Amino acid sequence: MFDALSEKLQATLDDVRGRGSLTETDVNVAMREIRLALLEADVNFKVVKSFTATVKERCLGADILGKLNAGQQVVKIVHEELVALMGGEQEGLRFASSPPTVILMSGLQGSGKTTAVAKLAKWLKDEKHSSVAVAACDVQRPAAVEQLRLVGAQAGATVYDRGTELPAVEVARWALDQAKQDGKDVLIVDTAGRLHVDQDLMDELVQIRDAVRPDTVLLTVDAMTGQDAVNVAEQFSAAAGFDGVVMSKLDGDARGGAALSVKAVTGKPILFASTGEKLPDFQEFHPDRMAQRILGMGDVLSLIESAEKQFDEGDAKDLERKLRRNEFTLEDFLKQMKMIRRMGPMSKVLGMLPGVGSQLKDAQIDDREMDRVEAIILSMTPKERRHPELIKGRRRIRIAKGSGTSVQQVNQLVKNFQQMRKMMKQMSKGGLKDIGAMMGGAGMPGGMPGGAGQAGQGAPVGVRGGSRAARRRKR
Amino acid sequence: MAREWTDLFVLDETRAAALPAPEPEKRGRFFKRLRQNMKKTREALGAELTQTLFDTLDEETWERLEEALIMADCGAKATAEIVGRLETEATTGGLTDPQALQNRLAELLAEAARPKEDATIDLRHGPTVVMVCGINGTGKTTSIGKLANTLTLELGQKVVLGAADTFRAAAVEQLQIWGERAGVEVVTGKQGTDPASVAYEAVRRGRESGADVVIVDTAGRLHTQLPLMEELSKVRRVVEKLMPGAPHEILLTVDATTGQNGLRQAAEFSKVAPVSGIVLTKLDGSAKGGIAIAIAQDLGIPVKLIGIGEALEDLRPFDPDDFAQALVKPDEVAA
Fold this sequence. Notes:
The complex is a heterodimer.
Chain A: H1 5-17, H2 24-40, H3 45-61, H4 70-86, E1 101-107, H5 113-127, E2 132-137, H6 144-154, E3 158-160, H7 168-181, E4 186-191, H8 199-212, E5 216-222, H9 229-239, E6 244-248, H10 257-266, E7 270-274, E8 282-284, H11 287-295, H12 300-310, H13 313-325, H14 330-342, H15 346-351, H16 356-360, H17 367-378, H18 382-386, H19 393-403, H20 407-430, H21 433-438, H22 468-474
Parallel strand pairs in A: 1-4, 1-5, 2-3, 2-4, 5-6, 6-7
Antiparallel strand pairs in A: 7-8
Helix pairs in contact in A: 1-2, 1-4, 2-3, 3-4, 4-11, 5-6, 7-8, 9-10, 17-19, 19-20
Chain B: H1 5-8, E1 9-10, H2 13-18, H3 24-37, H4 39-48, H5 59-71, H6 75-91, H7 98-113, E2 121-122, E3 128-134, H8 140-154, E4 159-164, H9 171-182, E5 185-187, H10 195-208, E6 213-218, H11 226-242, E7 249-255, H12 261-272, E8 277-281, H13 291-299, E9 303-307, E10 315-317, H14 320-328, H15 331-334
Parallel strand pairs in B: 1-2, 3-6, 3-7, 4-5, 4-6, 7-8, 8-9
Antiparallel strand pairs in B: 9-10
């Protein structure tokens, strides 16, 4: 369902490569893909509109037409624009000149306020070495006070609560006095979840704000929020105002387009990201990583960094030569495998790959399978590794015994290897285009009606793809 | 169509007969409240879909309609389908009258929100076991609390609640408070106990005490957390082992503000616990809950209940026609 946008773009634009240069029509097709992917990632419709306009302008202006790596160029521009949209100057939390620093947490019901309060408390305690207190001003939801009492204590914060006996504003005022008396560095005020359309509750939030005069007001936004995120942010901004956003539930597979929209519309930065159930799953927000997530690019940067650390340039050249001459042996294969494995467990490496992230991240990739392959190869003689076609009859039995596997498994490995070699031979002859053919279709399900197939039929309008005239003709 | 609770819940005939007839006055009040609470929802979309939209039919008409549906979180796919159909009917079917187009749009939306499957909840299993799941913060416990109240006080059902959210701090207390309000028994375990054991105990208690309905609350979990999804599967299996055929109803709570990720949620939860109905919560905000249409259209899972506010009576049976009308019609027309 979540096709990686970057992959789609590459595919759409690579398609064009065969017949020479990119045209404006191709760019339009690419913009359509971007538009759909952003909408699927829940980026606000209006933001998407202006975003694609900017990207298109840059694409046409950047003179990428006719270039061979146009696909990559477009991806790069999209990435840069996404980062620009979400980032800008990150201010971070404001600290009061004389403590306590007061942070007010606001948001809709169920957006993760209470959890965020505890996580922020722990973060401040661990990262900033602050003494933190939290105030339980959610007197609405049954058991909210108990929840904060528990998680606040887990976070190592002092919890100021008066049960539900007092109105929220009174509790807040009282808690501030307590924090001053106790000489706390930071007081985080938890408030009841409220709907931005509920005037009474919004007024209450303003009263709490005026009572404690916070240095920073935070709004928690659920990463899974849809198009409405912008409304919510605008209303909170108009009523009580806020200085930054805490994105919650980023550990799911939501693309978090809401984050981008909120920043684009209110100009308020996303300061923190909450990424798990446990208290330490809370980080400062990185716009570039979010941009990659929206693009479905995976954490390519980390992967490249770690690959660079592991790969030896000489080795790589050697390998390339061998591939070209079809001299790739099981020995080389083993070397490659070891190199990749040095980068970490397979599931992690794959998870960082573009496009693979969403599908395979949680698939249980068995590193033991690779152990087995390694054991089989290591049980071969050097001669067998260089000439796997020798492996027959008694040799097979010996290798199976030596590696603690079965003859079938040895067979399978040799067969796979030979197939791989054949593939590589074709590749070195036919150029990269054949890889595309070989992997044809995989990973590119055309979920949308009128997908990329309708390229070249004028400007992409709306979500239905192709020109209307064309569709009408079809009917 | 489910306007009344008795349209949604299939009761034992003799029991149903014993219920007081629905008071028209009360019903009118409910409908008014529904419209009142969904006011923002309607306003936001209504602004895009003023009656003048269909006055002139050109590219822009369909673009604006697309925009409106996407802004309602119906998703690109469902939007493309609905707008495409309406456009075809307008251009080739000669449907051009603005009023007729608006009615047809409401119809198409209602159709999309009403997959073929039966959207009732059968309460004649003695006891019917209802399991409620969903991601964190979508309103599981609150919905269960309200449901328990309605079932007990309005439909005369004997209800047992199972507090199988043994993970979130104070979740059990939250359910207990609701249980007290409705005067129903709440089966609990200590924080951290195996949720399956609490569910088991709840169903056992339900059978023993002759309850009509056992509602099992589960901890909020993200659909990407495999061990937690496995845990949910276990809860379901354990209940099934004790009482074959149970859980009879698996409800998934979806927050109306949810975007396209809602589709993933419904699909992933269905893998471990086949979801038989959606509870669309928090419709009283400005979110339009179009994700329900996307889910119904894509996965064929019907919406069964909606939450339109904080008050006890704000959990209501879902009526696709009302919902669709509320989405597209300006106030004066619908009234």
